[in-house]
Amino acid sequence: MLLLQCPWCGDRSEEEFACGGEGDIVRPLVPEELDDRAWGDYVFMRRNEKGIHFERWRHAHGCGRWFNVARSTVTHEILASYQVGDDRPELPE
Amino acid sequence: MWQTEGMAKYSIFALGRNALQRHRHWPRAWRSPAPRPSYDAIIVGGGGHGLATAYYLAKQHGMNNVAVLEKGWIGGGNTGRNTTIVRSNYLNPESAAIYDHALNLWEGLSQELNFNVMYSPRGVINLAHDHHEARELHRRIYANQLAGVDAEWVTPAQLSELCPILNLDPNMRYPILGGTLQRRGGVARHDAVAWGYARAADGLGVDIIQNCQVTGFTMRQGRIEGVQTSQGDIGAARVGVVAAGHSSVLATMAGLRLPLESHPLQALVSEPVKPIMPTVVMSNKVHGYMSQSDKGELVIGAGIDGYSSYAQRGSLPVIEETIRAVVELFPITSRLKMMRQWAGIVDICPDASPIISATPVAGLYFNCGWGTGGFKATPGSGHLFAHTLAKGEAHSLNAPFALERFYSGALVAEHGAAAVAH
Predict the structure, then answer these.
(1) Which one is predicted more confidently, A93 or B291?
(2) Sheet order of strands, B261-270 included
(3) Would A47 be classed as within a structural domain?
(4) Does A91 map to a domain?
(5) ipTM exceeding the 0.90 mark
(6) What is the pLDDT of residue B422?
(7) What's the confidence (pLDDT) of residue A91?
(8) Positive or negative, the Cα torsion across A55, A15, B368, B241?
(9) Contact A75 B311 (CB under 8 A)
(10) Is residue A90 part of a domain?
(11) For position A69, which CATH number holds?
């Protein structure tokens, strides 16, 4: 069971949240110039990291806002929680 | 020392002969060889799908110089962690064809392998709890019938005959309006599938190498030349990766990305009880499914956890939701104790369909993305992947499941039929 830190509401149980998958995927700025391969890579291909995963969560049963989490997909340890648009935080080794 | 004729035929006479010798002289079912410097083909991953691939490579394509590399022990991943349900009632014609191909192979598998995989066609029921779901399931029945897959609608009255412990009270929160029934569906013994394929493949000369983790691929000019492992470098012109939840990790080693997310999928078993559950019942709506093993344990499957993970354990809220559903569907289970709970790491595709495909690296093939429902496909998956590896091109049944579909847009959306109910 995860204890997530919503940047607005504080520590809350995993049950209040919805996981939005891999974060930091930047939408192409000039979409009309993309070919099928670039679209496929953007829409479907994922890093699916074994280790530290930077991902998006939404406080679905709370404030309803999106935020970013750095979490280990091996130990489930939550290393950082930060707002959308912020730079990735420095993580301890 | 084990006897070298590992493929001594299992039969009632062999059983009698060995019983007289107090079962002390059974030969080992497969060898434990050291890896050779190179093979014609290497299969990465010794689960059911990987072992089946090696078996069909040797049996149907005459490729006997093959190794299966397994980082742990064979069948110790998702093959040993699923809920053993076998069915083929998928919506799209491509899916119905590939899963029904597997179901056809299940029917003769024990004879084919000379190993009892305990395939038991006891029927698989999918429940409908509202009118919309009933309509969706009717649509799936008609699609199945058009695709030649057996499927029929069962009413609550028929359900009370098929599964007497089902709660058919019309006043419950999600009343049961009926369901679909695939009579050829059922269960099989998961470990036996891995062991049966391993023994049969070994008998045809395949080397099964356990505790051998692949740490990298050797490639030159866009061609695969071999793999680096914890037991040294091994050469091969063709490499097939069948690594389920760890497919993305291996793809990264080859400089590739896959459209996969790895999630925990949880299941649990109760203490053993006398036979109360003659069939398999699944409900997508309230998220639970149940069958009874031959040992008497009720085998209960949950949904996936919403976050990605490689930890082989999930969160308790998912289990709680499933137990809530199961207790409502089967009130008789409310005081049963649960003995074990676990998770497997499943590789989910955006369209809930598998990938059996060549890759941009020549000679490197991936068989992955089976997500929450790979067990039922084991024989078909192995059979088609062997064809793809041996011929260098897809079989007509797995051609729609190439990696290319994520660029062409020809997805095979199976969220309804795959859901999580397996």
Answers:
(1) B291
(2) B152-154, B178-182, B124-128, B280-283, B288-292, B298-304, B261-270, B338-348
(3) yes
(4) no
(5) yes
(6) 42
(7) 85
(8) positive
(9) yes
(10) no
(11) 3.30.2270.10
Query: pLDDT at residue A74 above 70?
Result: yes
Per-residue model confidence (pLDDT) at position B418: 76
Chain A (3-42) residues lying within 8 Å, Cβ to Cβ, of chain B: 14-15, 18-19, 21-22, 36-37, 39-41
Pairing type for strands B214-220 and B338-348 reads: unpaired
Residues with Cβ within 8 Å of B164's Cβ and at least 6 positions away in sequence, in order, are none
- Does the model's pTM come out above 0.90? yes
Residue A46: per-residue pLDDT: 96
Whether the CB-CB separation of B300 and B270 falls below 8 Å is answered with: yes
Q: In the prediction, which pLDDT does B420 show?
A: 58
What pLDDT is stored for residue B2 in this prediction? 42
User: Of B323, B404, B397, which Cα lies nearest the Cα of B102?
Assistant: B397
Q: What is the rounded average pLDDT of the residues A41-70?
A: 97
Question: Three-class SS of residue B402?
Answer: coil
- The phi and psi torsions of B186 (rounded to 5 degrees) equal 170, -140
B298 bridge partner residues: B292
Q: Are the C-beta atoms of B270 and B336 separated by less than 8 Å?
A: yes
Cβ contacts of A43 on chain B, cutoff 8 Å: 350, 406
Which of chain B's residues have a Cβ under 8 Å away from the Cβ of A36? 407-409
Q: Could you tell me the residue range of the domain that residue A27 belongs to?
A: 3-83
Count up the domains in chain A and report the number.
1
* Closest alpha carbon to B389 in B352, B359, B369, B349: B359
Q: What is the DSSP letter of B335?
A: T
Which residues of chain B carry a pLDDT beneath 70? 1-7, 419-422
Q: Is the Cα torsion angle B231, B210, B259, B321 positive or negative in sign?
A: negative
Say if A51 falls within a structural domain.
Answer: yes
Chains A & B: contacts with CB separation below 8 Å = 70
Name residue B130's amino acid.
Answer: D
Q: Terminus-to-terminus CA distance in chain B, angstroms?
A: 41
Percent share of chain A, pLDDT over 70: 99
Residue numbers in B near A74 (CB within 8 A):
310-311
